[in-house]
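STRUCTURE REQUEST FORM
Protein name: Repeat protein (TIGR03806 family)
Source organism: Flavobacterium album
Requested output: structure tokens
Priority: standard
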Amino acid sequence: MKKQHFLYLLAITTLLFIAISCGTDDSGQEYVPVSPVVLDLDAAPYDSLSKYKFFEGEMKNLQPAYKVIPYDLNSALFTDYALKKRFIWMPEGVKATYADDGKVLEFPVGTVLIKTFYYDNTVPNRETDIVETRLMIKKATGWVFATYIWNEDHTEAVLNMNGRSRRVMWYQNDATRIINYKIPSAMECALCHKSNGVPVPIGPKPQNINKMYTYADGTENQLSGWVKVGYLAEGYPSQINSTVNWEDTSKPLELRVRSYLDINCGHCHTDGGQCNMPSMNLAFEKTTDPANLGVCVEPHDFVTGDQTHIVAKQNIDMSLLYFRMSNNEMSEMMPMVGRTIVHEEALALIEQWINSMDAPCP
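Status: completed
Returned output:
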């Protein structure tokens, strides 16, 4: 009994020591974790993705390192059915600030946006194939692009700014899909990621990231989560005019359409965008006006075929929007880059929306 009593006291003493010393170093100072990410803005972009140390463990697991925060969008840009994982990292002591619901957050110098494109259920063994990781790095002079192509073993990704194609085969809805996936060049990235001639991100706007996200320690709104980790300053509005998941059939049809067109087309078809034109503005906050969606608007730009309107009520055959989304010809398709095949589910959404409209255009 005495020996058992001694061992019991020893165990209690050990636990108390651990509890008292937890969170301190040998000098008694509180331990503050530090992100392992390495970013020298003068040297970046690096020649390989591993040098940034964004991920811990095996790179292919895409397990984010400390302060590399995952995030998601209400609706995502279509890229030939590729799946995507998004992360953000910022250096210590800086924060993004809110500008407007529909404007990209004002990110500080040193911010890195990380987006990895991959496919699940690939042929023949239904494995995951990681194709590319794109970075946008905020330097003092503005945003720069960096695209990294993964090797076959998924142990490393190498910088490639010239673009290339890669054959991908995967199972989708009990069918086998085969494409030559297009990895964009820096010039092609700039076609979409540019406003008034200046490189900019597309996705991280309050309207797109105002959603719940399940983190390792629980579920939380992403905006408040970014505040908690020190990546976003407080002071943004409590009510944000937000996009929705276009696939959520519980949401109003037009709201789903507006959300899809904003993330897939609105960065070009808006003020200062690559395809800025007076007859169409697909930015989410603008499309409460049907005319900005092209409804009953006669096309004056990008005219192809015999379509009478950009969106002809109750008539997909006479709708230029539908024609371009259903087309794979480089000179006729929309978007012009970012896809090589038709987004069939989104096309069905547009067809449903057009057919649901009231009386045909005059």
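Reviewer notes: Residues 49-229 form one domain. The chain has two domains: 49-229, 253-355.
Form closed.
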